[in-house]
Amino acid sequence: MVEGTCKPGFERVAEAFKKNFDANGEVGASVCLTVGGETVVDLWGGVADPKAGTPWKQDTVSIVFSCTKGATALCAHILASRGKLDLDAPVVELWPEFGQHGKERVTTRMMLDHSAAVPALRARVEGAKVYDWTYMTDRLAAEEPFWLPGTRNGYHGLTFGWTVGEMVRRASGKSLGTFFRDEIARPLGLDFWIGTPEEVDSRVAPMLPYVNKAEEAVTPFLRDLTTDKKSIPALFYFNSGAVLSGGLATRAGRAAEIGAANGVTNARGLAGMYAPLANGGGKLVDAATLARMGEVSMATHDDATLRIPTRFALGFMKSMDNRKRSLGATVFGPDVDSVLLGSAAFGHVGAGGSLGFADPAAGLSFGYTMNRMGPGLLMNGRGQPLVDAAYLSLGYKNKDGGVWAR
């Protein structure tokens, strides 16, 4: 059963959301849109915990995986807007220990656009050590770069949280989770956490993972996982301590501050975070910073980690049209391994298909969260139709050119 509100003119979004439950295997989910700062869609439905039969309620939240990166990036941009963090200065000015093995000229900009060359750690990360902030930042400071920093990009799937997060900590004097709470979540009234307090646990919907079948392991990313243990994809995925082996479902995993992966919120939280950014920056960032946040900073035809074409702004994903460029789209369907947004939009996908973004040209902010993960690396056949319905509701005509256009 779907509950919530949908204003006239946005019925397409409600229909697409309901269709996900009726025909696309959705279990529990939420979707939220704001336009011009006004909430026009706020829907939720389904089952939060299939084992217990718990319904997805208005205040249900879940792990949003890499949507957390957008929150972490926003922290850095707030500090840049206040003149406390120079994105183009060498990182070593604030974090001297990071300047080892040829990383002396790495900038926060490189950390934000995934070109800092530390997308993984080579030596084994033991279990719960991944929850120890100092251990992980020390390890990254000592890591040898995988390429000459700044010359290419490879998605820093987990390490982003500690590289960018440590710059936030050093520039602000607060831990990443504390800064996010004090400067973003609390002022905006968001039910959104990086480092979730225990009292929220009863509202967290457990995630239902997607398990790849053997015959689906044909994409470059999945081939690297299964055939080359020293590859960047394999190191990112398998050398992650407890994080990608179920650790985020534990109290310790949710309590840690993992700025790339363990944010807890719902669609309302994601859309609420991006709403000021869709409407001039609000009290978060100035106009110059907002303009910089939406510009493409790094793009490639073969991301060193994800092994698909990617386009990144500073900490955010831009529209990525891989419908004809990814084997994943052939195996899993056309919406897999892409995220199709407006050309001005920026935001972040989370593993399994969650998404939050702002589109300043449309005055639109969007959030979608769910507990049944889908296949592929970016969006899938449940999330992208919601995005499509949002743009169609605003009068956009098509996405044939790889971005939604009027």
Question: What is this structure's SSE topology?
Answer:
Blueprint: E1 2-6, H1 11-23, E2 28-35, E3 38-49, E4 54-55, E5 62-63, H2 67-81, H3 108-112, H4 133-142, H5 159-172, H6 176-188, H7 220-227, H8 232-238, H9 251-255, E6 264-265, H10 267-274, H11 287-293, E7 298-300, E8 310-312, H12 327-332, E9 346-350, E10 354-359, E11 364-370, H13 383-393
Antiparallel strand pairs: 1-3, 2-3, 2-11, 3-4, 5-6, 7-8, 9-10, 10-11
Walk me through this protein's architecture:
With 406 residues, the chain is of the alpha+beta class. It has one domain (2-393): 3-Layer(aba) Sandwich (Beta-lactamase). It has 13 helices and 11 strands. It has helices spanning 11-23, 67-81, 108-112, 133-142, 159-172, 176-188, 220-227, 232-238, 251-255, 267-274, 287-293, 327-332, 383-393, and strands spanning 2-6, 28-35, 38-49, 54-55, 62-63, 264-265, 298-300, 310-312, 346-350, 354-359, 364-370. Strands 1, 2, 3, 4, 9, 10 and 11 form a 7-stranded antiparallel sheet that branches. The model has no long low-confidence stretch (mean pLDDT 97).
